[in-house]
Design a protein that fits this description.
- The chain is about 0% helix and about 45% strand.
- By secondary structure, it is an all-beta fold.
- Keywords: Nucleus, Repeat, Transcription, Transcription regulation, Transcription termination, WD repeat.
- InterPro entries: Swd2/WDR82, WD40/YVTN_repeat-like_dom_sf, WD40_PAC1, WD40_repeat_CS, WD40_repeat_dom_sf, WD40_rpt.
């Protein structure tokens, strides 16, 4: 992969637009190899794309339970997702034959955070029922339960040794996976958000920082070791209260975010400087933005899915 520098980032243009969905895409996830991308939408469709060929591969319907917070698992052609209908069970899906492998019941309110361990078949879920649950894909029974004081967001660190729980839009608790039942080994207290809620939490790939996304027009970057606020990214629009995703570039140097004005905003993670605003003619708010972990490809989604490529070869 060529190096990401400001000039390359500013050169990104939409190379392909997919119009498979009739309602907004609410979640996307690249496979660890970067070869495929999975999305789910409020029209209850799951779509898988081939990132090398720039084509749509599979469409699967989840009409009965709805679908949100979709993630590839480590096994080929499988994914987990939360439900938007019937109940708040998490479901483990075989994509090639559209059959459920296992259900994970337990949450009593909407699941708002779901993340898969980068190294093993475990995952975390958090809900508006103010609990965080730890699961093993091989068992329908919850492996661990944490009662929290408010709405959670959660993320594994890149090594899969610890996980972070953002609670009540004001504190981040770090847990050791081998002894999570003893409680967090450190808690970082931040100023509570007054205008919005925390809706997403991600570690940078180098493990040094954590990115907090919100349902307002603010994104925060904090030091993963000390909880120190490093940057606040603003200037993107979110006047609809939607959980707009913010993402790192694979080298942890850039932050990408969607916007309700249908554009992608990019900042330098170290300086907080706005690098550019990319206009790809999205007709609706962009809720999802992620950078491919292996290829020089950016994906953004409103109702449409857009694949972006740099238009200069090198600098």
């Amino acid at each position: 992969m060529m190096k990401l520098v400001d000039q390359v980032v500013r050169s990104f243009k939409v190379a392909k637009v997919f119009r498979e969905n009739t309602d907004k895409i609410n979640s996307i996830d690249f496979s660890p190899t970067g070869e495929t991308l999975i999305s789910c939408s409020e029209d209850d469709q799951i779509v898988i794309y081939d990132c090398e060929k720039g084509t749509q591969m599979i469409t699967v319907n989840s009409k009965k339970y709805g679908v949100d917070l979709i993630h590839f698992t480590h096994a080929k052609n499988t994914a987990i997702h939360s439900s938007t209908k019937v109940d708040d069970t998490i479901r483990y899906l075989s994509l090639h034959d559209n059959k459920y492998i296992r259900y994970f019941p337990g949450h009593t309110k909407k699941v708002v955070t779901l993340c898969l361990s980068p190294v093993e078949d475990t995952f975390l879920s958090g809900s508006l029922d103010k609990t965080l649950r730890l699961w093993d894909l091989r068992s329908p029974n919850c492996q661990g339960l944490m009662h929290l004081s408010g709405r959670p967001v959660a993320a594994y660190d890149p090594e899969g040794l610890i996980f972070a729980a953002g609670v009540n839009s004001e504190s981040i608790k770090l847990y050791d996976l081998r002894s999570f039942d003893k409680g967090p080994f450190v808690t970082f207290k931040l100023n509570q958000e007054k205008e919005c809620d925390w809706t997403g939490l991600k570690f940078s790939r180098d493990g040094k920082t954590m990115l907090i996304s919100t349902n307002g027009s603010i994104i925060r970057l904090v030091d993963a070791y000390h909880g120190t606020p490093l940057q606040t990214f603003t200037g993107h629009l979110n006047n609809k209260g939607i959980p707009i995703e913010a993402s790192f570039s694979p080298d942890s140097q850039y932050i990408f975010s969607g916007s309700t004005d249908g554009r992608v905003h990019v900042w330098n993670a170290d300086t907080g400087y706005k690098v550019c605003v990319l206009n790809g003619d999205h007709p609706a708010p962009i809720q999802c933005v992620q950078f491919n972990p292996k290829y020089m490809l950016l994906a953004s989604a409103c109702t449409n899915m857009a694949f972006w490529l740099p238009t200069i070869d090198d600098v």
